[in-house]
Amino acid sequence: SQDILLLRARERVYERIEYNRLNNRVTYRDLYHQLTKKKKIWSLRKVITDFQDELLNLMPCWMASPESVSAIFPMKEMFDLVIFDEASQCFSERGIPAMYRGRQVLVAGDDMQLKPSELYQIRWEEDSDHPDLEVDSLLDLAKRYLPTVHLQGHYRSRSIDLIDFSNRHFYEGRLQLLPDRTILNQEQPGIEYCKVDGVWENNVNQVEASIVVGKVIELHQKHPNKEIGIVTFNAPQQVLILDMLEDVFVNSGMTMPSSLFVKNIENVQGDEKDIIIFSVGYAPDKKGKISMQFGSLSMSGGENRLNVAVTRAREKIILVCSIEPEDLRTSDMKNEGPKLLRKYLEFAREVHERRFKPQIVSPVRQQPTWYLNNRIKKWCEEKFSNLQFETDTMPLADLYFKNNGHYLGIVRTDDVNYYTSLSVKDSFAYVPSLLEQKNWGSYYVFSRNLWHDPEKVEEDLLRFIGSRMIAAQ
C-alpha cells in the first residue's frame, strides 16, 4: 500500500503536464517563476489561490494549524478530506473555517484530555441561548452533529498498570490493551511509588526535585537508550528541576539527552516517553500543615489534566511524592481533580506493593461450548497436562497458554473475535502486527481446515505449542 501510494503521488505530478506548440513545458512554469523571483514577491495566499491545482499535484497532503488554514487557503473546497487532530483543544470557531476547505471532515480528539485554553487569548462572546454556543471545543460541537466512534485499542503502554487507572476512571473500561508478553512475564510493577519527606515552601519542593534529578542521572547511566520525561504539577517545580538538571549535567561533564523533557501537566499532552517521572510537589509546610490547594487540578476539568499526565509512559512511571493518599482530605471538594489525585496515589501504591491485580477481560463473551476455541482448549489440555490454557482473558485472541504462570503464546480462531473484527485488514494485518510488536507468538486455526483435515491442524498446532515451549526455555 505504501509503494502504491508513493507511485500514485509521483504520477499525479506529471500525468497532466501541458506543452506549447514549441514543445516547451507550460505546467509549473509560472509557479516556478513566482517561487524563485527576488522582488515583487507574492503572498503565500495569492500563490496558492492562483496555482491551486499545480500545488496540490506536487503536494497533495498539507499539515497546518486551523489559523494557518484560514490565512493561506482560499475559502473554497480544495481538499478531498480535512482531518482535525487534538480537536478537544481547538475552539470551534477556529476549526469551522477549515471545514469549508474540504469535501469530507474527520474530527479526532479525546474529550477526557485538555480543553481549549483561553489564557492570553481574546474571544468574542455574545449573549445567546443557542446550544452550539454553549460548547467550546470543536470536538464537542462535532459530537452534536456527526456520528461518533470510540477507539478501543490502546497501543502506547506496554504494561496494563500504566493505563488501567485511566481506563476505569475516564474511559468506562472501553480500552483494550494487549500487554507486552515479556513485561507481563517479568511480573514487575509498572509504577514505582517513591515516598520522600519533602517540604512545601515557596511553591516548590526541594527534596522531591533532588530525588527526581538523582533518578534521571541513575536511569541515564544504566539505560542510556531509554527516553525520559519529567512531569510536575506546577510551573515553579518544573523550573527548579530543569535548573538543577542543567547544573548536574554541566558539572559532571555529561551531555543532557535531547529526548529529555521537563514539563508541567498543562503542556505535556501529545508527548510520550519510555519512562515518566512525576514530581507531585505538594507536601506539608514547615509547620507540618498540608494546604488543600492543587493549582489547576482544583479547577473545573482539572481531572483531565491528571488523565493526560498519567498516560504518557510506554514502559514505567516513577511517582515521587511527599504525601500519603490518606493525607489528602478531598471529600468536601467541589471538583474531581483532587479526588482523582488521591485515588491515583492509592492506585500507584497498590501497584508498587504488588497488591493490584488488573482485570483483563475481553469484550466478547464466549459461552457456547461448541465454539472452536473451547474445542481446541479441551484438546490441548489432554495433550499438554503441564500447561495452562485460558479463554476470554485478554483481547485480540481466543486461547492463551502458559507454563508456571508465564505466558508462552496465543492461538487465534475464527470464532466471535474474528467475526466482530472491524475489517479483514484488522484481523489479518493490524492484529498480527500488534502481536509481533508485543512479543506474542501466535497461530491461526480456521474451522474449515479443521473440518477438512483435523489431523493436519492438530499436528501443526502441536508443533507450534512445542516450539513456544522450547523458545521459553
Low-confidence stretches: none
Mean pLDDT: 88
* Range of strand content: 5-15%
SSE series: HHHHHEHEHHHEHEHEEHEHHEEEHHEHH
Structural class: alpha/beta
Number of strands: 11
Q: How many helices does DSSP assign?
A: 18
Residues in helices, as a percent range: 25-40%
Distance between the termini: 38 Å
Major pleated sheet: 5 strands, parallel
Q: Write out the strand line-up for the largest beta sheet, numbering strands in chain order.
A: 3-7-6-4-5
Radius of gyration: 28 Å
C-alpha geometry:
globular
Helices and strands in order:
Layout: H1 2-14, H2 29-36, H3 44-50, H4 52-58, H5 66-72, E1 79-84, H6 92-99, E2 102-107, H7 138-145, H8 164-169, H9 181-186, E3 191-195, H10 206-222, E4 228-232, H11 235-252, E5 261-264, E6 273-279, H12 302-309, E7 313-321, H13 336-352, H14 372-383, E8 388-391, E9 399-403, E10 406-413, H15 416-419, H16 424-437, E11 441-445, H17 447-452, H18 454-472
Parallel strand pairs: 1-2, 3-7, 4-5, 4-6, 6-7, 10-11
Antiparallel strand pairs: 8-9, 9-10
Q: Would you mind describing this structure in some detail?
A:
The chain is α/β, with parallel strands linked by helices and 473 residues long. It has helices at residues 2-14, 29-36, 44-50, 52-58, 66-72, 92-99, 138-145, 164-169, 181-186, 206-222, 235-252, 302-309, 336-352, 372-383, 416-419, 424-437, 447-452, 454-472, and strands at residues 79-84, 102-107, 191-195, 228-232, 261-264, 273-279, 313-321, 388-391, 399-403, 406-413, 441-445. The strands form three sheets. It has a five-stranded parallel β-sheet. The protein has a four-stranded mixed β-sheet with strand order 8-9-10-11, sandwiched between helices. Helix 5 (66-72) crosses helix 6 (92-99), helix 6 packs across helix 7 (138-145) and helix 10 (206-222) crosses helix 11. The longest helix has 19 residues, at 454-472.
